[in-house]
Write a structure and sequence with these properties.
- By secondary structure, the chain is mainly alpha-helical.
- Among the domains are: about 55 residues; about 60 residues, Orthogonal Bundle (DNA polymerase, domain 1).
- It is about 40% helix and about 10% strand.
- The protein contains seven helices and five strands.
- The strands form two sheets. The chain has a three-stranded mixed beta sheet with strand order 2-1-3, with helices on one face. A two-stranded parallel ribbon has the order 4-5.
- About 15% of the residues are buried.
């Protein structure tokens, strides 16, 4: 009887050992390939490829271009420091500063130029008329003086209008007189044009030729 009980215990022990071995083998077969697939590299261009792991397995933040900080001063409505998006132009900085004032000189600043971080942008103001004239700067609305004597027999209305004391109306009268009487034979003939007297002829002498 004792030997029969001992034999049963040995059989049960052997069965338990066999079951444990089978379970271990099954676990290895099931989890082994899955673990290897986790080591495969992500597809290039996928979201996993763009998120490279950083320290501790955390995703490293994507680097973004720096936003420049510029100092806008001069003839703008709200001078000050402004942070702009990357790739901004001077026009963007001026717009952030409230735009140009009525005294600003748009020709004095290149609005299409790109801005750089730490740059100071100065928008100049227009010079007063008397100061601009003293410095030789062209005055707004002022007609440029002719480079040489104006030839009365072929000059256009615009060229005649550029002469001192001759406005567009008188310039048209000179052209009408020329059309009616032919080419000018002398500067003194201007005295025959309505609206031009001897004093005006003397003022124009040296600036015009027949």
């Amino acid at each position: 009887m004792y030997e029969l009980v001992l034999t049963r215990r040995r059989v049960l022990t052997g069965v338990l050992v066999a079951v444990v071995v089978l379970l271990l083998a099954a676990r290895f077969l099931l989890h082994g390939p899955a673990a290897s697939t986790k080591l495969e590299r992500p597809i290039v261009g996928s979201a996993e490829a763009g998120a490279a792991p950083g320290v501790g397995g955390a995703a490293a933040p994507a680097s973004s271009p720096s936003r420049p900080v510029v100092y806008v001063v001069g003839a703008v409505r709200r001078p000050g420091l402004y942070r702009l998006p990357a790739g901004s132009r001077v026009a963007d900085a001026v717009s952030r500063a409230g735009g140009l004032t009525r005294k600003a000189d748009p020709a004095g600043v290149n609005l299409a130029a790109p801005v750089a971080d730490g740059e100071q942008l100065v928008v100049p103001a227009r010079l007063p008329v008397e100061v601009a004239g003293a410095q030789g700067a062209p005055l707004p609305g002022a007609a440029s003086a002719p480079a040489g004597p104006v030839q009365l027999s072929v000059a256009t209305v615009e060229q005649l209008d550029s002469l001192p004391g001759i406005g567009p109306v008188t310039a048209q009268k000179i052209v009408d007189y020329r059309t009616a009487h032919g080419a000018f034979r002398s500067v003194d003939e201007l005295d025959e044009v309505p609206g031009i007297g001897p004093a005006r002829v003397e003022q124009l002498r040296g600036l015009v030729v027949p």
